[in-house]
Amino acid sequence: MMGAATAGAFLVGVMTGQPVTQTRVLPRPTPEQAAWHDHEVSMFIHFAPNTWQDLEYDDLSTPLDQIDPSGLDTEQWVDVAEAMGAEHIIFVAKHVGGFCWWQTDTTEYSVGHAAWRGGTGDVMRDLAESCRRRGMGLGVYLSPADRSQGVGVGGRADDPGAQAAYESLFREQLTELLTRYGDIMEVWFDGSLVFDVGDILDTHAPHAIVFQGPRASIRWVGNEDGVAPYPCWNGARFDPKTWGTLTAADGDPGGLRWLPSECDARMRNTWFWRTDNAHTLKSVEQLMDMYHQSVGHGAVLLLNHTPDPSGRIPEADAARAAEFGAEVRRRYGRPIVETVGRGNRVELFPSAPVEIDAVITQEDITLGERVREYVIEGLTADGWIELARGSAIGHMKIDRFAPRRVAQVRLRVLRSAGEPVIRRLAMFRAG
Fold it and tell me: Is residue 121 over pLDDT 70?
């Protein structure tokens, strides 16, 4: 099961004449969670009848004969994802209004009854084929809430009869999505789930990352600003009543389960396209600030795009995404020097003194998040000086500081739970 990632064994303490104590092994990611961390940036796609309504939530007013994204181009969506450095796309196949963008047998409020392609279109199919051709990962968002069915947050209906009927419908929708479109690497249950669908996930997507719900293997960061707190610990205490609704605020380095944070954020100030908010498109500097506070704090950034009624991501948004991806590569794509190491000290030796303003540190998280406190120091003409200091490193910590000319850089781990294993220590002149 994806959501129960932990090194569940116990280590026995050393005999010292005192009672033997037992210490639980640090939580560690599953292979799928570790691969998800490495993606660092992913792309959200929000597209629904409210795209035609200038609304964030579908009011169910748009006739299906008006749903006709005749210019829909999932190849363009993948172009945008690649340009901004995303490794997978999460498509909102059904938002809270209940409209389904795939050929479903569960409801008439779907693309099968829309004007587009005479009711034969299937956005999920088009996107799956584009992702498969391009080597892009694919995830799906299936809203538990469904206004067309009169169902609220978490998939909660008003009475037991309606609850049973909706759970059956939802399970069929999830099964359709997980069996018709190839590998699905991430599944979103926004707002969590009040019922379990673990049997379907185990059967049809046993390796998928799961956002919220009883089988959660990642958690919401707690805001929609693309910002993770610091420290953003990957461990969390296990509580079956709240597992699917924990946020980054519940991070605990002594936790029993590995439950990393995903930072969802918007390119514009809304999740869906609107006619009146093109001016809210974020600048490259705003996006870089978001990157530093999400990926740079060890989380994954999930950055949303909003196709317009034609089915294409607006050109200005696509261009900004490409500028953002290029800026990340410009700043951090090529280190001056980098290394790996073990123990409480890891050192970097450039070939000659050089001016730097950033250091990236990564732990080997497959062995657990071990570092608890560290300092990064640089050897200058005046001797060793402190460049940065912190607590958590985890998958990645980006430390930025005023430019300094250094002949050497060292990472000193001041506190750790076990021997630190540093996957990467790299210095940059990021500007």
Answer: yes
- Separation between Cα atoms, residue 423 and residue 36, nearest integer Å: 16
Confidence of residue 239 (pLDDT cuts 50, 70, 90): confident
Range 337-428 has CATH code 1.10.510.10: no
Distance of alpha carbon 175 from alpha carbon 238, whole angstroms: 27
The structural domains of the chain, with segments of one domain joined by +, span 30-332, 337-428
Question: What is the residue type of 176?
Answer: E
What's the CA gap between 251 and 122, in Å, rounded?
39
- Residue 2: the pLDDT is 36
In this prediction, residue 295 carries a pLDDT of: 98
Supply the pTM of this predicted model: 0.93
Using one digit for the tens of pLDDT, what is the confidence trace for 347-365? 999 999 999 999 999 999 9
Tell me the fold of 30-332.
Answer: TIM Barrel (3.20.20)
> Omega into 214 within 30° of 0, i.e. cis?
no
Share of the chain above pLDDT 90, in %: 91
Residue 6 has pLDDT above 70, yes or no: no
280 is written with which tokens?
């809210």
The span from the CA of 241 to the CA of 196, in Å, is: 12
Position 330: which residue type? Answer: R
- Look-up: residue for tokens 């610091």? 230
